[in-house]
Amino acid sequence: MATIKQVCELAGVSAATVSRVINGSDRVIEATRKKVQAAMDELGYQPNLAAQALASNRSNTIGMVISGLDGPFYGTMMAAVEAQLRELNRHLLIASGHGNAESEEEAIKYLSSRQVDGLILLTEGLSSEALLAISQSIPVFLINQQVPGLENRNVWLDNFGGAYRATQHLIEQGHRNIVCIGGPAFKQDANDRVAGFETAMRDAGLDVSGQPIFRVTFGVEGGRQAMNYFREQQLEYSAVVAGSDETAVGVYEWAEENGLVIPDDFSVIGFDNMNLSAYVRPKLSTVAFPIVEMAKASARMAFDVIYNKAHSEGVEFNTELVLRNSVKAL
Amino acid sequence: MATIKQVCELAGVSAATVSRVINGSDRVIEATRKKVQAAMDELGYQPNLAAQALASNRSNTIGMVISGLDGPFYGTMMAAVEAQLRELNRHLLIASGHGNAESEEEAIKYLSSRQVDGLILLTEGLSSEALLAISQSIPVFLINQQVPGLENRNVWLDNFGGAYRATQHLIEQGHRNIVCIGGPAFKQDANDRVAGFETAMRDAGLDVSGQPIFRVTFGVEGGRQAMNYFREQQLEYSAVVAGSDETAVGVYEWAEENGLVIPDDFSVIGFDNMNLSAYVRPKLSTVAFPIVEMAKASARMAFDVIYNKAHSEGVEFNTELVLRNSVKAL
DNA sequence: TTGTATGCGTTATCAG
DNA sequence: CTGATAACGCATACAA
């Protein structure tokens, strides 16, 4: 491994100058820059990261904690963040949490001890207060998490709008009695989706006072539970908006178990556009969102504020309705 | 951030001694060790990684390249590797490839320039020769890739056995005319699965000379292609063994498009046990394997040989048949 | 615009 | 078993 010393000898300049061209300083004349660049190329020089980090007190590494890597789109998100960061010549250190505050806290502690320059968080367990506290000591960037005081560090999905449009679509198809399976109440995105449902209903002059909303944990089992609940309540409905595609699968299973057929007996619309939504029968109509773009935006934002002291602004991403075969027009 | 200097002042020893207790050297008497430990605890001391790396010429980081993070189980694998490494006090640097040799090569180059201490490779594009070449300059550990000369650095799945048992199961259920959709011929695991199929057939005295094997790229579309091919060949079959669950989904779709019902008209068995196999109807019988265990084993192996100069041995993992509803007894 | 000198926090060599 | 001390490779004031 060539060192800066060999480069400066070959180029006939000082180490400081080489360091300047490495870091793209503008205080170096074009001629010397070229000379140095040539020397670096000839030697195949690669800066030693540890030395850089030690001298500059910067690891050039951003940490990312993901609450559970086996989730539907977390892998994709991570890959996109990694790609973006690599392009910007920074690195990504991953720590996977397990969906609970404790393990996420531990992951953050781990990353901090690895002295990352900043944190990208795709977590579910941490409270707003905890997040805010962490951000005092290290730049924090959020994905899909609205935290008061960190609005400008967040990249989020218009969950409200997505659910609104999904519900609206059902209404346009003639449905009036619509039931909603919401995610857990401690999850921001779940709440926004439920709110989107309610608003769309009200805007259409439809009643939502009859308990048509049931909260469950996301996942297949939740969908089944909710459907049983609706039956116990003897609710009439011709369509259900599910808080997630997985929940929708639970609804599918419940329908199957009860001899009901979708969308003839009732319609279903999901949220997330996971792969499975195209595999399931009937193919699931659902709400899609730009995973990769969101991830890249987050990485970009982190880069800009951490390394360029840029001012950042929160950015909202929009959903898109993906119409398949789980909704019937009445 | 406390430094080693403050620790040694507080403990009344030299930096060298502190360093020794940090690294668990045995050449330090118990009394001083305790003294130092107490000082470290009191100060909340955390060694500076960059300084350690610079001085020791070791990053304590292992790089991992994954050919495509959005794949079915790659995220899970990565999370498991990360967890294992973290437990061992090492770090994971990720680089995602895109399933082709070029991007994987670039990912490796990237990780090397980040001076990782070793590489865990879950790739698909790189040739054996390329892999072998890379391993000359840096310790390489493989997941699911048999490379001559790197046998002892590999953790792999018994793809042959898995396909063998799947086929055998079909035969036990009374099937005689069985057709096989294989993955691409340049993929080791695909070949092993095909071989497992052939052997199981032969062992049962069944004929495989009539072109019952068709190779496609993995994925839904591949399954459809293969089924069309079988029809063109006017092959008779009562069951198909698919090279992957995704391929099996393609078979499902083809059946649906052609008004055939599984498993009444023909049976299907998959491979991988992805989530979708439980979501699809009928639920897919398939071949499962221990993703997390394989990942951990790989991380452990890398750790042992890189940091403890241990000798390693390749380890094979076994599959398990997961019986659901896509196979009918004849 | 460039060079000099110093320090970053550890590890490792060599004495003691 | 412990202590000095010289690297490790680079960044950055400061000087020129």
Automatic annotation (TrEMBL), chains A, B:
Looking at the record, the residues that make up the HTH lacI-type domain are 2-56
- Does the keyword section mention Repeat? no
Q: What is this protein called?
A: LacI family transcriptional regulator
InterPro entries reported for this sequence = HTH_LacI (IPR000843), LacI/GalR-like_sensor (IPR046335), Lambda_DNA-bd_dom_sf (IPR010982), Peripla_BP_I (IPR028082)
Name the domain of life. Answer: Bacteria
**What are the alphabetically sorted keywords of the record?**
DNA-binding, Transcription, Transcription regulation
Q: Name one GO molecular function term.
A: DNA-binding transcription factor activity
The opening ranks of the lineage are: Bacteria, Pseudomonadati, Pseudomonadota, Gammaproteobacteria, Oceanospirillales
A UniProt-annotated Pfam family: LacI
Q: Known CDD domains for this protein?
A: HTH_LacI (cd01392), PBP1_GalS-like (cd06270)
What organism, scientifically named, is this protein from? Reinekea marinisedimentorum
